[in-house]
Design a protein that fits this description.
alpha+beta, 34% strand, 2 domains, Alpha-Beta Plaits, 4-stranded antiparallel beta sheet, 8 strands, 161 residues, 5 helices, two-stranded antiparallel sheet, globular
C-alpha cells in the first residue's frame, strides 16, 4: 500500500487529478486550470456601413454565442461610432462594442472564429482580466473611481491668488 501512495503523490505533483472509484484507477484529468471560469473582456468593431438594425443583429449574434456556450455576461457597453486610428478596409470609423464576461477558456476559440468568419467585424480583441482589472471595472461601473486631479499650472496659480 505504501508504493501506491508514493505513486499517487507523484502523479498529483505533476498537476494531474487521479480519480479512484471502488479501488480501480481511472483515466487522469490533466490541466485542471482549463475547467475554471475566467474573466474576459472582448471589444469588437463593426463596420459603419450597416444600418442600425444590422449592427444590432451582429451584436446580438455574438452575445447569444457567448450565452449558448455557457458564458455569463457581467457587463456590456455600446461605445458607439468612433474614428479609427488608421483606415481599416478603407473605412475611417467603426461601431465599437464591449462585453465583459466569465467563461471557460475553450469558449474564446469559438468566439474568435466567429469574429473572423463574420464580414461585418473589422477588428476584435479579447483578453483575460486580472484581479486589478476586475476591481477597476467594478469601481468604474459603480462610479466610485477617484476623480482626476488637474495638475497645477501657472494659470491655475494666478486664478487662485
Amino acid at each position: 500500500m505504501l508504493g501506491f501512495t508514493k505513486t499517487l503523490v507523484k502523479i498529483l505533483t505533476l498537476g494531474q487529478l487521479l480519480v479512484i472509484s471502488s479501488g480501480h484507477l481511472q483515466k487522469p484529468f490533466t490541466n485542471l486550470i482549463r475547467m475554471k471560469l475566467r474573466n474576459y473582456e472582448t471589444i469588437f468593431v463593426v463596420t459603419p456601413v450597416l444600418t442600425s438594425e444590422q449592427t444590432e443583429s451582429t451584436i446580438v449574434k455574438f452575445r447569444n454565442l457567448l450565452i449558448e456556450k455557457g458564458a455569463e455576461i457581467v457587463h456590456e457597453e455600446a461605445i458607439g461610432l468612433k474614428k479609427l486610428a488608421y483606415p481599416i478596409q478603407h473605412k475611417n470609423t467603426g461601431v465599437y462594442h464591449l462585453i465583459e464576461f466569465q467563461a471557460k477558456p475553450e469558449i474564446i476559440n469559438a468566439l474568435e472564429i466567429g469574429y473572423k468568419r463574420d464580414e461585418n467585424i473589422i477588428r476584435f480583441l479579447t483578453f483575460v482580466l486580472d484581479k486589478h482589472a476586475i476591481e477597476y471595472n467594478q469601481k468604474k461601473r459603480n462610479g466610485t473611481l477617484p476623480s482626476r486631479v488637474e495638475p497645477k499650472t501657472e494659470s491655475n496659480k494666478e486664478v487662485a491668488a
